[in-house]
# Entry
Amino acid sequence: MVCQRALGMAALPWLLAACSTAAPADMVERTIDSHFAGELQLLRTLQLQPSEPLARWQGRYGVYLRDQATGSDFMVRLEPGEGAEALRDKVLVARAASREFVASQRAALAQLQRAGVQGDFFSLRALSPLYGSMRWSIAVFADPQALHKDADLLDEAVLRAFSEVVHLDPDPMIDIYPASLKPAYAQPLAKGYHGMVEFIRGAPETFMQAQESGGDAHWRLGAQARPAPYIVSARQPRLRAACYAEIEAMRRHNHLLQRHRIYLEPSRSLLEAYQIPARLQAQGLRQGHTAFALLDRVQGRMVLRGIVAPDAFDAGDIHAVSGVYAYDYVFATGELRVRPLALPDGVLASP
# Structure
């Protein structure tokens, strides 16, 4: 059978792409039925296909199981030549680890619920093998059409709750996904947490993969909005001062900061969804890449306010920019307003 899904970051053993195979299926099915009937549900057996740096994983299988006691899924890796006894022992160990993991996820979920978080969301708090520290990810689903009606993306009660959650330990990474993606994430949404393994769009996703994902998200909610320090270099001091003065004003006067001490920053996916880079480029801003942006309310309108500083390819300095511009994108009307903040000496303002 063909691959169910191409998994990213294939250079890590826990992020292996999986393709189905029937080679050990009969043995696996017999073993699960014999030792775990009524306790575990066999979901599928997939052959792990490693990338070239992980050729040692060649021939391994992933056996995906659902624990009927918790409703959560987990996986065991089967080595080439391993039989029923080895599989049984691995399943016992993996099931115990999964139940411990589920208990910790339910505790994290309860903490969020006590803070008042509600609606469509799921949580994942676990030790990251990649970073060696605890990480807490929260995926929230919201209807982007609210912005088109000049309404807040999240309910007032949810915003108040997250104004507390952002200060929990470890600092949660709160990503907001469009509500249209809820069917793809139905499995973790139903529980309120991400288990050791979840099937997303029909393909298995480990909790370690989920910690490094977020590509589908449109917004990041946080207590701070830190611009990159290199949007404009010190070699252009006047432009740099104008750039960071505008960013500081955007942050200080942001309506979400003033009401809830939080910010909403857009992802690249959001910018592309509204064709903002392309529209900036069409207005003469060369690459049209954006340097900093926040969701805000301006004169009753929900607006994306941002900074763009196009590279000056012909300036003889690889760090130079051709100017600093501010833009407002009005969600209700689709209008994109651009104004120059600062330009190099002798350059006329445009657009």
